[in-house]
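Take the subject:
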Amino acid sequence: MKKQIAFLTAFIAAVFFFFPACQKDNNTPAPKTKTDLISQATWRFSSASVGGTDVSAFLQPCQKDNILTFAAAGTGTADEGPTKCNAGDPQTNPFTWSFLSNETILHISTVLFTGGSSDFTLVSLTETALIVSQNITVSGTTQNAVVTFIH
């Protein structure tokens, strides 16, 4: 009986001593949320396509240099950048934003593009790129516009 108690005691001690040492170190940071990704830095225009055709060259430099900033609290700023298309426009315009439909729609309280709306389909959001799309109507024709912003 003493051998069984001694064995059981040794077994229990071994379990408490060795098994905690087998636990994995979980130093891997949690993946960033979409709110983390969109609000980590400012966004600048990279490219745009309408109906699958690159239209970046048709945009004015004063449109391409605009800067978007999203704060984690759901506010943001659209900055005209170094050049303005209209000297009378304010340098910055505040907006509010949120994710809708299980974070597949980016809602911005202001319309960013002529003929567009304030809701964008979130195509992709990574550490370095924000790609959104929306249907825009130009001269009575509705087409899909895809815009890429980068840090």
Remarks:
- The domain at 34-150 is CATH 2.40.128.540 (Lipocalin).
